[in-house]
Specification:
This protein has 328 residues and is an alpha/beta fold. It is built from 13 helices and 15 strands. The strands form 3 sheets. Strands 1, 2, 3, 4, 9, 13, 14 and 15 form an 8-stranded mixed sheet that branches. Helix 4 packs across helix 5 and helix 8 runs parallel beside helix 10. The chain is globular and about 60 Å long. Bound molecules: S-adenosylmethionine. The site of S-adenosylmethionine has 19 residues, from helix 3.
Length: 328
Amino acid sequence: MELALHAPGLGYYAMGTEILGAHGDFVTAPELGSLFGRTLARQLRDVDHHRILELGAGSGALAETLLKELSCEYFILETSAALRERQRERLGSRVSFIDRLPERWRGIVLANEVADAMPVHVVGWTEQGIVERGVSLIENRFSWSERPVAGELAKEAASIRVPAPYVSEIGLAARAWLRTLCERLEQGLILVSDYGFPRREYYHPQRSSGTLMCHYRHQAHADPFLRPGEEDITAHVDFSALAAAARETRVAVLGYATQAQFLVNCGITDVLAEANVENALHYAPIAAQAQKLLSPAEMGELFKVLAVGRGIDQPLLGFSRGDRSDAL
Ligand SMILES: C[S@@+](CC[C@H](N)C(=O)[O-])C[C@H]1O[C@@H](n2cnc3c(N)ncnc32)[C@H](O)[C@@H]1O
């Protein structure tokens, strides 16, 4: 997964510039239009937002909206050279690009649909024990092959109780990534938005074939060997693991809610009300964005927002109702 997504010169993200949006492989919340960013800005305005670091900024759509809404210094950390170039063209000198996580950070960190692109381990719970599913090259074709689990992965896998046979993912990389971010956070707020569940739902007995998915031209399928390097490979995010990573570094979990609840709490309906209802050409696309962002059948329920932070004393607007942190 690491190589297929990120290998320089070959990986999906390393090469792709037209992967996001209607003509690409998938659409993210910021790619739908400015409604997501304008609503998010209402939460950010409520806390100290003079420095924002966006991780994995895609086409630069969210940065563009937030820079219109807020007065701030904006930094981007983007691992894909191709996407960084696209962001540079779109945003110019309004943003500063950084190559690695800062040693210390005060301010806001945003990561929308980044955690799901972190490589995962695929694990099988069988009658005979727990195995890791790896990739072999047999007669010039990739195929799954199994080996015993070891180390940290074995410990994690043993702590998950599922009925065998069962296959799922363990996202050690995403957890380590958030732990590092939290360790370096001196003061501020980290918002991670993505599709995923708390641990209890993630490893639900009925989700027995896991969440590993590929996205190619708006079609989803579950075979990562079909077009390695040419299509997205993702896994849902275990938000309990991310919350644990924050707590291990004494960073507080400040809120966890569905995307719909978060956006409603932030006042998405007020943002909608600013649109010209009389003018259908103007209003219809914005209403369509709201429908995609909020509908339980689209992004509203599956997508979640997790807020963790250090030195933030006030309750956050986005979690004023329907905070589900206690499920993590
Ligand atoms: C699914 S896209 C989401 C883009 C954008 N945030 C959006 O919502 O439209 C994932 C983005 O994360 C970047 N990325 C993947 N792994 C990363 C990492 N470890 N650190 C920073 N960016 C990363 C990819 O290059 C890409 O820009």
